[in-house]
């Protein structure tokens, strides 16, 4: 796999939110989003 390959994965957690994993150029970012029921 190319070291500069960018990929994003989304993981659902009990449908209460989702976490995105983004990796590019050796940098990794983990962001968690929380869903709200209105």
Question: What's the SSE blueprint?
Answer:
Elements: E1 7-12, E2 17-24, E3 27-34
Antiparallel strand pairs: 1-2, 2-3
The radius of gyration over CA amounts to 13 Å
Distance between the termini: 42 Å
Order the strands across the largest sheet as they lie in space. 1-2-3
Basic shape: elongated
Class computed from helices, strands and strand pairing = mainly beta
Number of helices: 0
Unreliably modeled segments: 1-8
Q: How much beta, percentage-wise?
A: over 45%
Describe the largest sheet. Answer: 3 strands, antiparallel
Whole-number total of structural domains: 1
Report the average pLDDT across residues: 54
Let me know the number of strands: 3
Percent of residues in helices: under 10%
């Amino acid at each position: 796999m190319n070291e500069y390959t960018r990929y994003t994965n989304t993981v659902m957690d009990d449908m209460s939110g989702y976490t995105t994993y983004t990796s590019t150029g050796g940098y990794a970012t983990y962001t968690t989003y929380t869903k709200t029921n209105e």
